Amino acid sequence: MNVTNTQFTIGQVVRHRLFDFRGVIVDVDPEFSNTEEWWQAIPEDIRPRKDQPFYHLLAENDSTAYHAYVSEQNLLIDESGEPVNHPEIAEMFGEFLGDSYAIPRHYRN
């Protein structure tokens, strides 16, 4: 699988299906690429499959901003129309477009 077979794109605003946080996608792994320890720490009844894309997010919840690593099966499109308030967004993206962030020309392939 390559990253062209993903449901979401870099710059898109998404939310977690199970937990109360949202974020903007900054990178994608075609399949799981974190540590086995990280994966095993997820309760078995909600542990995602490894054979799917995983997304790196600049994430936020009601109390903090952080980095998150989330499986495709656990993401949904965020339909709030609100920007993500993460302090690193301005370093990586251009203007907020309502459902995603513009990717600066110098970051495009």
What does this structure look like?
It is a single chain. By secondary structure, the chain is mainly beta. It has helices at 36-40, 89-92, and strands spanning 13-16, 22-29, 54-60, 65-71, 75-77. It has two helices and five strands. Strands 4-3-2-1-5 form a five-stranded antiparallel sheet, with no helix packed on it. Strand 1 and strand 2 (22-29) form a beta hairpin. The protein is globular and about 40 Å long. The two termini are 19 Å apart.
Q: What's the helix and strand layout?
A:
Elements: E1 13-16, E2 22-29, H1 36-40, E3 54-60, E4 65-71, E5 75-77, H2 89-92
Antiparallel strand pairs: 1-2, 1-5, 2-3, 3-4
